[in-house]
């Protein structure tokens, strides 16, 4: 088969590659140099002649130039040695694009492309060619594979992926400082020709910036570019293929470059001399003026620190920077006085806080200015000689007593007269007044130190003839001095507890006194009983000479049932000048002391105190207990009234077996019988009813019997007969409870002929023995001591 292409018949660049493979081996025959099987035609066409051999596969490789035309273009020609030109050979084409993109003439073997080819979409096509006998359809040649490769042409311009770009570079940068790198891409084949070889150039932005033609790096091209002169630049970069040659395609992009700020400008005051007027009434610590130095830089590079560099101004004024406005705020450190100094000169310096050492060659980054302050005269209020006054006066002094004086003066040069008055806005009684012209303070009422030891008043001063609003205040504190005008009193108003077991000479309680006067007149107290009263037989008073006194019992065994309360008058003297005395009466309550006698408190009060319960709480607790008991009693009564009879049916009891599994009450069951009947057989008939069943409404209106002695004579009764009688009554009683009941009777007899041996009820003579030693045995034998002690009559005071 011969495959031929004619380069002169079409605008395609033709490359022919012949590959023969046999038994897994292949060899490549170049198409440019004719071999023994090739013929170079006169018109430039190359023919490949080959005689087919069985088992061989023929591959032909066609490379076509990229074509974008609308008409079908000639690609090449297939020719077989078996083709005699009589039309008996039919050529067929199969593979990628066969029949759609590539078509073949079956008779001549000419191949045409019907569509435009784009290398960027598909770089090559694999096709298969075969020659068949038109009559028999037998293959005259084995199927041969060939590849049509689309060769690139420069049909794509360079493109920048993004844009426009934004970049920045510090001002005052050196020449060649890198700003940004831009990169363009070309879709053409970079391995074939110069279609994808890109060269960069700058179209706009010179002479400030330049671009590297190979790398696309943008650099500064001018030194000392100043942001304050120009801040923004627009640079246009072009990318051109074909190595920048004529006819190459190009694309461009825009880069917006901004110069960032550096501290290359020092602060500068707009003028070197300033003037400021400040009234002398300006408040300390408040701003009185502003000053500002300009800095063309931005951000922290423009921050300025202000300071007053001369001592005259620094002693009276201070300056600080406002972070928002970058102004210097001038404030007052000390009060101004027009009469003392009328002008001040301030040397103010402004310095950058962030200095870049790279630009130190530009000079010092600071500036100075002079500020002249003129103090304005203001009509000032009077000034007191002291910031506050402390005075004193004795209590009970008559009205009009002089307390002290305040003085004020006019600080102005006129030295006007000053008048004084009290601030009447203060609440309370006006105890003082002030002389309008002299400033002397007087009392208006007698003062009582015990009622109010200190008084705080406010004195106001103003110039005579000036408007009322121009005045000043000063606080005045008046201390009321003490005089001995209050008698002493006993310190306690509570009752004194006296134990019933108190002995003569025993200290009942130690008392002290109080005095409303101050410490100097009330630190020493003396105690005594009133001299006009008779001697108290129950208690005596002892002065301990340490401002305390002891109450001592004069007799033994007080009894609260005989007399519960005693009164003891006490006279107290203080140590003041002159000495004052007062009489107080103490109430002494007799109570049985608690065990061990440690707490002198009545038993009832001790119980309430130890329990920590109020009377209302105790009443509530008792009420709850009563309600619970009533509920229990009601429940038991209803349960007993609902007992069913033992025999269910009176007619037939043979089949009815009733089982009770109740236990007897035992020794604690005291309701099953009445022990009184056993101990007093004579009253057995009267107490015949049982207490363990509901009573039948019996009422006893007679007086109860009182047994005062076991020696009462009883009727002769046979105990054996009495017990037998009770047994018969119990067996015949149909109203007994439905459980076994054991009734036990015990009786010791009717008495003894010798009488009782108990000494309690036997009359006896009073023993002459002294039982006073029982008082020393402690509270356990207190009752025994009272029974056997010597009876003494209680004397009431």
Sheet-strand content, in percent, reads 25-35%
CATH level-3 fold name of the domain at 489-602: Immunoglobulin-like
Based on DSSP secondary structure assignment, what is the total number of beta strands?
43
**CATH superfamily annotation of the domain at 489-602:** Cadherins
Question: What overall geometry do the principal axes of the alpha carbons give?
Answer: flat
Query: Helix count, per DSSP?
Result: 7
CATH hierarchy, class of the domain at 489-602: Mainly Beta
Give the C-alpha Rg. Answer: 68 Å
CATH architecture type of the domain at 489-602: Sandwich
Average pLDDT metric: 76
Q: Find the structural class using helix and strand composition.
A: mainly beta
> How would a crystallographer describe the biggest sheet?
6 strands, mixed
Give the CA-CA distance, first to last residue.
Answer: 165 Å
Low-confidence segments, given as residue ranges, are 1-61, 606-610, 683-716, 759-767, 791-797
Q: Provide the spatial order of strands within the biggest beta sheet.
A: 3-2-6-12-11-8
How much helicity do the residues have?
under 10%
Signal peptide: 1-24
Domain Cadherin: 80-160, 161-269, 270-384, 385-490, 490-607
Protein name: Cadherin 18
Subcellular location: Cell junction, Adherens junction; Cell membrane
């Amino acid at each position: 088969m011969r495959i031929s292409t004619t380069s002169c018949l079409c605008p395609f660049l033709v490359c022919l590659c012949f590959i023969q493979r046999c038994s897994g081996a292949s060899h490549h025959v170049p198409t440019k140099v004719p071999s023994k099987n090739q013929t170079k035609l006169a018109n430039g066409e190359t023919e490949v002649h080959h005689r087919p051999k069985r088992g061989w596969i023929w591959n032909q490789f066609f490379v076509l130039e990229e074509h974008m035309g609308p008409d079908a273009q000639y690609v090449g020609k297939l020719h077989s040695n078996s083709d005699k030109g009589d039309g008996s050979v039919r050529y067929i084409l199969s593979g990628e694009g066969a029949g759609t993109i590539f078509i073949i003439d079956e008779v001549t073997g000419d191949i045409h492309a019907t569509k435009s080819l784009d290398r960027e979409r598909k770089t090559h096509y694999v096709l298969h060619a075969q020659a068949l006998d038109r009559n028999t359809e037998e293959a005259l040649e084995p199927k041969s594979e060939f590849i049509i490769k689309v060769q690139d042409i420069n049909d794509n311009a360079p493109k920048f992926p993004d844009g426009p770009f934004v970049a920045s570079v510090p001002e005052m940068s050196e020449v060649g400082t890198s700003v940004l790198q831009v990169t363009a891409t070309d879709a053409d084949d970079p391995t074939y020709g110069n279609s994808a070889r890109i060269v960069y150039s700058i179209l706009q932005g010179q002479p400030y910036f330049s671009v590297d033609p190979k790398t696309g790096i943008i650099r500064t091209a001018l030194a000392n570019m100043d942001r304050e002169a120009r801040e923004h630049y627009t640079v246009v970069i072009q990318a051109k293929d074909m190595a920048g040659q004529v006819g190459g395609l190009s694309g461009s992009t825009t880069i917006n470059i901004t110069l960032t700020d550096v501290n290359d400008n020092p602060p500068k005051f707009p003028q070197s001399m300033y003037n400021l007027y400040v009234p002398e009434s300006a408040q300390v610590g408040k701003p009185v003026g502003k000053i500002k130095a300009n800095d063309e830089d931005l951000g922290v590079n423009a921050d300025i620190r202000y300071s007053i560099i001369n001592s005259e101004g620094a002693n009276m004024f201070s300056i600080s920077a406002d972070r928002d406005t970058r102004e210097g705020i001038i404030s007052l450190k000390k009060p101004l006085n027009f009469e003392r100094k009328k002008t001040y000169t301030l040397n103010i310096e402004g310095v950058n806080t962030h200095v870049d050492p790279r630009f130190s060659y530009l000079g010092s980054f600071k500036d100075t200015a002079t500020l002249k302050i003129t103090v304005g005269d203001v009509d000032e209020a009077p000034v007191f000689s002291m910031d506050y006054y402390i005075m004193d006066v004795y209590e009970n002094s008559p009205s009009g007593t002089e307390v002290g004086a305040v003085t004020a003066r006019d600080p102005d040069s006129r030295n006007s007269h000053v008048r004084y008055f009290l601030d009447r806005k203060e609440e309370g009684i006006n105890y003082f007044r002030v002389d309008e012209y002299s400033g002397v303070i007087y009392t208006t009422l007698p003062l009582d130190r015990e009622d109010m030891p200190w008084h705080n008043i406010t004195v106001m001063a103003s110039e005579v003839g000036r408007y009322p609003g121009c005045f000043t205040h000063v606080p005045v504190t008046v201390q009321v001095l003490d005089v001995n005008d209050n008698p002493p009193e006993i310190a306690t108003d509570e009752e004194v507890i006296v134990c019933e077991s108190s002995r003569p000479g025993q200290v009942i309680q130690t008392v002290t006194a109080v005095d409303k006067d101050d410490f100097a007149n009330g630190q020493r107290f003396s105690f005594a009983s009133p001299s006009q009263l008779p001697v108290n037989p129950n208690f005596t008073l002892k002065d301990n000479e340490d401002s305390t006194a002891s109450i001592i019992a004069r007799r033994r065994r007080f009894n609260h049932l005989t007399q519960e309360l005693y009164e003891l008058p006490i006279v107290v003297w203080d140590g003041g000048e002159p000495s004052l005395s007062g009489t107080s009466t103490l109430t002494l309550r007799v109570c049985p002391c608690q065990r061990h006698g440690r707490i002198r408190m009545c038993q009832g009060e001790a119980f309430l105190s130890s329990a920590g319960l109020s009377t209302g709480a105790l009443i509530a607790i008792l009420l709850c207990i009563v309600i619970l008991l009533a509920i229990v009693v009601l429940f038991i009564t209803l349960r007993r009234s609902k007992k069913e009879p033992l025999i269910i049916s009176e007619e037939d009891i043979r089949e009815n077996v009733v089982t009770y599994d109740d236990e007897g009450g035992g020794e604690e069951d005291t309701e099953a019988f009445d022990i009184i009947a056993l101990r007093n057989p004579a009253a057995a008939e009267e107490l015949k009813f049982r207490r363990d069943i509901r009573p039948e409404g019996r009422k006893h209106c007679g007086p109860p019997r009182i047994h005062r002695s076991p020696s009462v004579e009883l009727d002769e009764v046979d105990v054996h007969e009495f017990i037998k009688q009770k047994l018969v009554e119990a067996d015949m009683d149909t109203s007994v409870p439905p459980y076994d009941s054991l009734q036990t009777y015990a009786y010791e007899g009717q008495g003894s002929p010798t009488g009782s041996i108990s000494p309690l009820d036997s009359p006896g003579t009073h023993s002459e023995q002294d039982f006073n030693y029982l008082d020393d045995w402690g509270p356990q034998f207190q009752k025994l001591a009272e029974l056997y002690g010597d009876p003494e009559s209680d004397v009431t005071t």
